[in-house]
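Two proteins, back to back. First:
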Amino acid sequence: MVERQRADARRNYERILAVAEEEVAARGSDASLEQIARVAGVGSATVRRHFPTRRALLEAVSQQRIEALCARARELYGGKDDGRRDGEGREALLEWLGEVVAYCVTARGLAAALSYDEGHDPVGGNSCAAALIDAGEPLLRSAAREGAVAPKVTVEDLITLAVGFALATEHHPDPAARASTLLGLAVAGISPERP
């Protein structure tokens, strides 16, 4: 009997997550939990048992994207600092950050999953952000060793920028292009170069 209950709970979880992925893709982070429950054929209490908060649901929906971004960070870093040409650490960090921004803009709900709610510990309270911070850390350290990044910059700062760009461009006619432009401005700085 217990095994059957576990199998039912696992099926419910998978069904809820599949419906949630579709609803978030269609409606973004404001997807209705009640609608998700209705389409999944379960009660609202079942949805809340598996996903006690909207953030928990968004994190679960975003998990595959987060894993892909983490894998990409590891690939770009390649476990090496020695033997890199000057600028390679910076290039790798900026390529990854550009991909994070692009994912946040195109994957509805991802920016909200990475954002920090009031009262949440930004790292401990957000598994998606914590995973990206861990994955991006070697890239940031490599770029910092080259002198390409100010010592006080953190991966958390970079993730916050990415989220900000995604949320700020959400209703722009071409959000990906606009977010990319904003990222370029942030990287270059807004002050003109001095001779």
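And the second protein:
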Amino acid sequence: MAEEIRNILVVGAGVMGSAISQVFAANGYKTVMADLKEEFLETALKRIETNIDSMEEENLADGSYRGAVHANLTTILNSRIPETAELFDLVVEVIFENKDAKHELYRILSDNCRPDCIFASNTSGMDVFAVTKDILKNPERLIITHWFNPPHLMKLIEVVKGPETSDETAEKVRKLLEDCGKKPAVLGKFMPGFIVNRMATVICRGLYYMVE
């Protein structure tokens, strides 16, 4: 296990958030998945079971994998985040790409989590460092971890440092992801599109010219 990270909160139980929670739980991390409504969480747990079924069919997982997920994954409503926040070493934000929603979530996290708790956003391109600049008490702990769909199968994760992200934060996150069998690519600073989406934009532009 990655040093000093044991308890993880994943906020957002959609397709990405549920699979990210699955990955952490399968690798032995005590993981709590949060969302706004119980039905969202119930759907997410069913989705995880379907993911594991598919992995077992392809010999990518066995009974011990499912057992680890069941043993390490629990759920809470977002309303309980303030009262449980001090338990977590890492919070992974996987909510929809809305600046106001992210701003409010990070305000709650900053007010209630321990100063050493790392915040990792799964944004695919939003500058969360600018969005949270006025409310984050410890900006050196904020980083982007951009997972690719489906997270439980895709190895590559883009890890993006902000202007104040510490080297210690980046190293802890890198080690955590490698411990989970992932291949993190660390970017020294934020840039729109990161690596993959910037490359895809160039390729698509060339294809559009060919079609024209």
